[in-house]
Amino acid sequence: MKFDLFVLPFTLGLIFLLGYLTVKYTRWYFRQDKSDRQKVRNGFLSLKFMSALREIFLESLLHRRIFMKNRLLGFMHMSLAFGWFLLIAIGNLESRVYEPTAANPPYVPIFFKFFHANPGTFPLHRVFSFTMDLLLLFVLVGVILAFVKRVYSRAYGMKRTTRLMLGDRLALTSLWLIFPLRLLAESFTSAAYGGGDFLTGSTGNLLGSVFPAESFCYPAWWAYSLALGTFFVALPFSRYMHIPTEVVLIFSRHFGLTEKSKRTSFTEIEINSCSRCGICLDTCQMAFAGGINTIQSAYQLKAIRYHNIQPGESFNCLMCGRCESTCPVGIDISSIRMITRNELNGRTPDPSFTRKPVSLVNQADVIYFAGCMTHQTPAIKKAMQTVFKEADVNVWFMDEAGGICCGRPMMLAGHREQADLMIEKNRSLMLESGAKTLVTSCPICYKVFAKEYNLDIRILHHTEYLLELANTRKIKLESLAGTAVYHDPCELSRDIRIYKEPRMLLGKIMKLAGTGEFEKDNTLCCGNSLANFSASNEVRLSVARDAVEKLTAGGAQYLVTSCPMCKKAFEKVSDVPVTDIAELVSKALHKHQAHPVTVVRKKEPSVALELHGSI
Amino acid sequence: MKSVAIIGGGVAGLEAAAKLYKMGHAVTVIEKNDQLGGRLNQWHALFPTRKPSGPLLMQLKEQVCEGVNIVVNAHITGIEKNDDGFAIKISNNRLITANVLLLTTGFDIFEAERKEEYGYGIYENVITSVDLEQLFKSGNPILTAQGKTPERVGFIQCVGSRDEKVGNPHCSKVCCITAVKQAIEVREMLPSAEVFLYYMDLRMFGRHFEELYKEAQFKHRIQFIRARLSEAFENPDGTLQIRIEDTLLAKPLKMNLDLLVLMVGIQPQKKDGNLVDMLGLERDSDGFLKPEDQYTAPFKTGMRGLYCAGGITGPKTIEETLIEARAVAAEINGFLSRRKSFIGHEQFVMEL
Amino acid sequence: MKLEGKRRLWQEYQKDIATDKFFYVRSCVRQNFFPAAEQTFLRILQQTLGKTVYENPGHTTCTGIGYHCDVVPLNTTMTVVARQFALMTEAGYENLAVSCITSFGLYTEILETWHHFPEIEEQTREFLRKATGREFMIPKNLAHASDILYKLRHEIAAKAPFRLINHITGEPLKVVEHIGCHYSKMFPHKGIGGAEYPYVLVGLAEALGGEIVDYPERRHCCGFGFRQYVVRANRGYSLSCSKKKFDSMEPYKPDLIITNCPGCPYFLDRWQYVVGEMEGKTYGENGHGIPVLTYEELVGLALGYDPWDIGLQTHQVSSEPLLIKMGVPFDPSKKYAGKKGENIGRPAKPGTLKIDMDALHIHESILTS
Amino acid sequence: MIDFGYKIQTDRQIDYDSNDRQILEFVRRGEPSIDWCMSCGTCASACTAAVTTEYSLRRLIILARRGMNREIVESVYRCRFCGKCFNACPRSVNTRNIVYLMQLAATKISNHEI
């Protein structure tokens, strides 16, 4: 068996790393509940295993998603990951082919050129050395790109890049050193003993002409081994933990594991899978519009991983989900943020609200739940009531006198147990009414109804419901003059993806203008998000201003949304009139008549009414 | 003869014009509307005396009817400053030149529609204090949109005042006493109605204000509730349900009203064509024109020969506005008599 | 605190007080609470100062307690009071000296009522005539007994062998004075020094060399308040009022409390025991309470009367620490001995409040002098 | 100790000096806008929770200013975080963060962390 003392740093590092990962991952496995462990066990024996492998190849090695977002960044990641993977794989093959019978410990292929400086007897040696040199070059290009990114991230179109911690610096430095040192070691070896190809050979010739190659050769191999060893030891304590963990994450996800309301091993896997690539930083409105650069997902995940979470930062997120939709690793950031908020709170719920009856239950076909916020935008409420009347719907206005709130804000506040109590209370009232359809004007309510209420009745946001009424000719819509731009509220987009209905509905009434890139999955938060507790009014206003600017850049005459919160936020900063889609529908109902107020006015010309016209 | 142009023919402008004319200056009043009198035209009676506004308005107009040049329906298209004073371009290609320019353009009234949760323009029985004053002026009875005599009327203070969310952090100063006055007037017109006044703080700072407040309490049985409205609801019959916190009892309170009056605030003029921006003058943190010094130079604007008075520098009572108008006239007079170099103008309205 | 400000108030609230020939009316409850106090008053005036004081055994309650408990109607009260006046008129006296603060307040209230509503006075005369056939004259001078001692304070001080001065250190003793609510809170001009800073006991204490301490809850009621105390369920409220005062005066380390009301000394004295039993808290030095004296007891002590003759053994809080500070000689063995040396019995030892002499550093000289 | 059949009642008076204003100070550090509150009560009148439970943010802020921490803990958990108060506040007070920080302060006080 080939051996030299210099392989020790590499070998010990590798043993440490493998040991560490084995312990960590085993612990995670056993900390899962029974059903999750079952899922993992079943997963290994199913087709899911193969699909996971495919994704690992595409994402962990090729970094396809990053590539699609940012080609240069994708190439950088790919050259480092895939290049290194091939170096190891083909290196192993090379040593196997060269000495098929000998014991082949991991260090032999890694330091192949040390042990077999000039393997001339080996039939395919020219092919192998060429390939290995080519791969080394490939990886070195990646290293150079990474270096450029660290120094000047704007070259990648990135405005922000993550900050490094001590463990990261050590790992990063050793990682960057690995490949140049390999180049040096192989080049000196080539200069001293021959056997180098186009890269190592020519570099060797060059170096050999300046330095005494033979005496530089051995220290270079030591340095190379030390860099590898250092990297392996630093890896679990640095962001590079994502390299092995992402593989575990892909398997887990394919095996059917998801985030729950409390922290699980899956959460740990996700937290450790963040490479802090920084893609989330630039998508965050709090960063580019609000000027707040401490709360983005990469930082939050880091803070959670190192137990350094600050409530002020955790609660300063809009939870719009923009970062999540761009995360190349596909980490379920929103759930992790919710879990963190729950962990930051520590108190049993206060069920005092259940003691008093909130509202008498009416038997009805349709429940209308306006939502707390809609009470502050009476125009939306009034529009919905007008439509219900027009369509002659047997409706129960559940929170007419104020409800107990849908529970989503409470969840966002990190009081999951309290939210569950509220959900249960509302749920029992809803079921008691015997209604078949639940309509809400508030996307915040909609999301929690759809995701948490577990109702076997239809749950519709008013955009969907109004379209249904129009399509079934229950209401007749006339078109109105002007062009409108539609803004997707966060809570109806990305996760829920109600995109088609509002546009079809709006299209029946008004000419639709495009919103450029900022629509659907890439929609912007209005800044008024209930998920955010810490942001000041100024920050919220600047987020809103930025969003309105981007949305109305096309010159639409109306900014239409379908969320009372968004409406409130935009109204404050928009020069273009802001309106809810329901208000437009209500207006379109009455196109041939005057506005309802005006109708009464014509019948009874009392003074108090005429006053409306005078102002 | 030295000349003064006054932009804004309201209380401040008319009073200053009359005084400056008496001091021997050529005065031109430029008014954008078709009649003089400004906001006073909208008003029925004055606080705290409850005297009708008509005689005051008449007197203000009469004292400028001889000798003072009046230009109405004047849309200002540009103002130029030169060594000799100002050249003011107005619509119909006319040019007015003057040695001194006095800005008495006043203020704007808060657009109540912007407080959507209060329902103005959405609910039928929500009106503003300006609407109510005009109703008093018309002499018509107070009726709801349904044509009924209201049995309960509520006055909501601070609509568009002391409210950062609508960009008006300042106190409009006159609404508290106006609400007390209007509440009394409503009670007098509707003796069987209950009248409620919802306030954050009652700022009865002026002479006889406190007495009027007390009168409203004991003589007119107006009920004062310390609260600020969060939102109003419309009942099926068109009446309104308001939702407040009775802050002195720390309990939420709801009640029905037949008519809701919003005491709309006073805000700086910011719309296109406002002179503060046209002249590039500095605004204070509340958006009103910033005088050179609040104490020592309250009428100076930082531009030589350019003066200001009245509502342009913040909410004021009519009393205060009149005093300012007289004071600014005296100051302008002093300025003009020190400036011997000014060329006098006989004919200072020119057709271009 | 600015003394000038208080002096200005004191000058504003003055009244005429007779100096001799008194018709004395006793209090109902004081004879039970501190039976020797009124006797001491008579001894001071009659024996030491040589004044004429007349008492009529036929005088009755003024009905103040019933009146303030809402059980006696005002007309009845006024008629009963009119009868007291008739007794005085019949005896040929014009100066009324009242032992009880509530009586004093009630007489004042009735005289004020009659002053403003002569028809009510006429009606009362009619009632009295019908009921008893008596006639009366309005007293020429109405004074509370403490007013009279205040008026004579310099005369008293001149004769007093003991003063409110710590005879060992020479420092003035710290005195908390507490004025009965009905003394001047209803009619400030009828009390010496008014309602906010009554001077009556302050003047007396200062004349005897004491130093008055002002503490935040000085004006708070002792909590007696007839409706509160009489109903047992409300007694906690009464207690809490006194406790509030104790907590407030404690940091000033008062040497004694003096009062001019029947209820106040009783409650300020007895509640110290109750607080001790409820919360284990005491307010005086070394686990003792703060001694509470009536104005008569204070003057009696200063004039050198035997402490047991003026009834200090009937106090819950032991007054020995005060006697030691003042240098008043006393014989501990005679504390619970009657006039003839018989044992009059002693109260059970409280659980918390210290009353035993062992805790005191008694100077032999005091005991024997 | 003897049972007299009645008890010493606790003072209703707010003892400003013996109260500590820990919750106020804690909230103020994280959310300075608590000092902007002028007690107008718009928050409480908009409040979703106040309809069914004894809850008023206006009162909570006053309680914090007076140092009545026990009363705060009693009612601060009734907030639903619905955010209407934030929309309604005329002084742009960051209402929900105040409630959140009050809750956090209560937890920290009970854990003896502050």
Protein described:
- The complex is a heterotetramer of chains A (615), B (352), C (369) and D (114).
- Chain A is mostly helical.
- Chain A has four domains: 7-243, no CATH class; 258-344, Alpha-helical ferredoxin (Fumarate Reductase Iron-sulfur Protein, Chain B, domain 2, Orthogonal Bundle), CATH 1.10.1060; 352-471, Rossmann fold; 483-589, Rossmann fold (3-Layer(aba) Sandwich), CATH 3.40.50.
- Chain A is 58% helix and 5% strand.
- Chain A has a four-stranded parallel sheet. In chain A, strands 6-5-7-8 form a four-stranded parallel sheet, sandwiched between helices.
- In chain A, helix 20 (378-390) crosses helix 28 (581-589) and helix 24 crosses helix 25 (500-509).
- Chain A is elongated, with a radius of gyration of 31 Å.
- Chain B is of the alpha/beta class and 352 residues long.
- In chain B, 23% of the residues lie in helices and 26% in strands.
- In chain B, strands 3-2-1-7-18 form a five-stranded parallel sheet, with helices on one face. In chain B, strands 9-16-10-11-12 form a five-stranded parallel sheet. A four-stranded antiparallel sheet of chain B has the order 4-5-6-19, with no helix packed on it.
- The longest helix of chain B has 21 residues, at 318-338.
- With 369 residues, chain C is an alpha/beta fold.
- Chain C has two domains: 21-145, Glutathione S-transferase Yfyf (Class Pi), Chain A, domain 2 (Up-down Bundle); 158-368, Rossmann fold (3-Layer(aba) Sandwich).
- Helices cover 45% and strands 8% of the residues of chain C.
- Chain C contains 17 helices and eight strands.
- Chain C has helices at residues 3-12, 30-33, 35-48, 64-68, 74-91, 101-116, 118-132, 145-151, 153-159, 181-184, 200-207, 226-230, 235-249, 263-279, 295-302, 320-326, 364-368, and strands at residues 22-25, 53-54, 95-98, 141-144, 174-178, 211-212, 256-259, 292-294.
- Chain C has a four-stranded parallel sheet. Chain C has a four-stranded parallel sheet with strand order 6-5-7-8, with helices on both faces.
- In chain C, helix 3 (35-48) crosses helix 15 and helix 5 crosses helix 7 (118-132).
- Chain D has 114 residues and is mainly α.
- Chain D has one domain (22-110): Orthogonal Bundle (Fumarate Reductase Iron-sulfur Protein, Chain B, domain 2).
- In chain D, 46% of the residues lie in helices and 0% in strands.
- Chain D has six helices and no strands.
- In chain D, helix 3 (57-66) runs antiparallel to helix 4 and helix 4 (69-76) packs across helix 6.
- The chains are: A mainly alpha (615), B alpha/beta (352), C alpha/beta (369), D mainly alpha (114).
- The interface between A and D is medium-sized, with 39 and 30 residues.
